[in-house]
Amino acid sequence: METRGLRLVGRYVLLVALAFVVLFPIYVALVAAFKPGNEVFKDPLVPGPFTLDTITDAWEQGNLGRALTNSAVVAVIVTVLQVVTSVLAAYAFSFLRFPGRSIVFGIFVATLLIPFEATVVVNRRTIEDLGWLNSFQGLAVPFVATAFGTFLIRQVFVTLPTDMRDAARMDGLGHWGFLREVALPLVRPSVGALALFSFLATWNQYLWPTVITTEQDWNTVQSGLRALAQANLDQPNLVIAGTIIVAVPIFVILLVFQKQLVRGLTAGAVKG
Amino acid sequence: MRRLRESIVALVMLAPSLVVLGVFVIYPLGRAVVLGQQRCDPSGRTCESNGWDQYVDVFRSNEFQDALWVTLKFALITVPIGLALGVGLAVLADKHLRGIGVFRTIFSSTVATSVAVASLMWLFLLNPAVGVLADWIGGVAKEPGLLRDPDTALWAVSATSVWANLGFTFIVVTAALQGVPRELYESAYVDGANGWGRFVNVTVPMLGPTLLFVTVVLTSRAFQAYGEFDLLTGGGPQGRTTTLTYLIYGNNSIVKSQEGLKAAVAVLLFLLLLIVSAVQFRMVSRRVHYGN
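Above: the input entities. Below: the structure tokens describing the complete assembly.
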């Protein structure tokens, strides 16, 4: 019994120590973000004197209000459209018979193997030719459909018994009606997971916004942080205040949507 | 008649995805393959063929070979360490202890940091002028700084990346651990297996598919990592952190204004990732134990 108690204590000690290690970078950032400019170079681990000036400076210099708005708009556009395109495509693959189905499916699978990083050179040209540099379309449109989302939703659709569809047809329900009234309500948890996943992925995009925007007004949070960092190499605390501003909304969102996050992240693991 | 109508409905439903995937995923890859054998003027608009052996030349060039090596090293450092730490934390926190929820939230927390946020936090941490880590570690950490020393730069970026991905690995493995039936642990316990024995004989086999999934994701993230290098090192010092992605997109890249060569590197990166994932799936399809 005594060794068990000791083990328990040991486990807690280990957990606390590891929690400190994981949180350490965040702690240091928080301390620095709420200190005045020069204080940051002495005792970086000790909080205070407390000020909000660094945060407001970062907000103004980095034009972060604008960047947050841009990121939110782009992420919402991508999320909504990705859910729509994924549900529709998944429905077609699950409930409809049409010529060339396996070929089209094969094309979807193949796109999963193409890393986005290999296509950016050409995609930038396409966006430029469309006149979409520095625009919401340019930031969002390339991502409004994914094979990942399609497969995630299809995975649930294919578990629905075929009798269900047949019964619905007897009741005179067409495909659109069946989708809206029967199939969609059943995949709601997966839709939630997909939505959170695509929101997060879009919000976190780094390479694409830096390639596709040339004007400060079109910075997303990530490219805005990059600009802030490059303009203030000698003011590390200002930059760190910017990262706190950008990180907080996502922290809050993830805390609220923990369940969807776990589903979204583990979706690939259970996919056959 | 019904078949025709079904086909039309299918076309309508698939069209949005097909258009987007066609224009922004499939076409650009095909176009990049062609562009990869061309030489372009600095505007990137006028290109002419330079022959397919341009791919061979690019592959053989010192710049590509160096970047390939850096990329492989980065993956070989970050994937095993990230996996081990994530699994370790998940196993440690997979107990019905008081307050375990707090620890789980903490260990998951880095999932909320984007690459820019994580990189800038570590840039601050490693900044010798601020001296959070530099004062403790001393030596090169103080002067010229871990990110500026050619011997440590890649390791410093790797630490950032491992930290940033830890939350993802922890969450996925924790979810999988909850699916492992308790009876398996109990019977292993009855059979006299100690903690390590239970981990090796129960946890690891049951986690098989999840470990594969995490490995694949971490590997592909490592090969595609860009933001860390852009923000922390700019590909330096002395090209020691110029990965393939940095070679394509980096501001300090030697091929910065040569669209044809950039496309060639991008296509080679695609092929590399294809080979890596094929190898991973082969290796694992032989080893993974799916439950039952």
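Note for the figure: Residues 69-217+248-270 of chain A form a domain with the MetI-like fold fold (CATH 1.10.3720.10).
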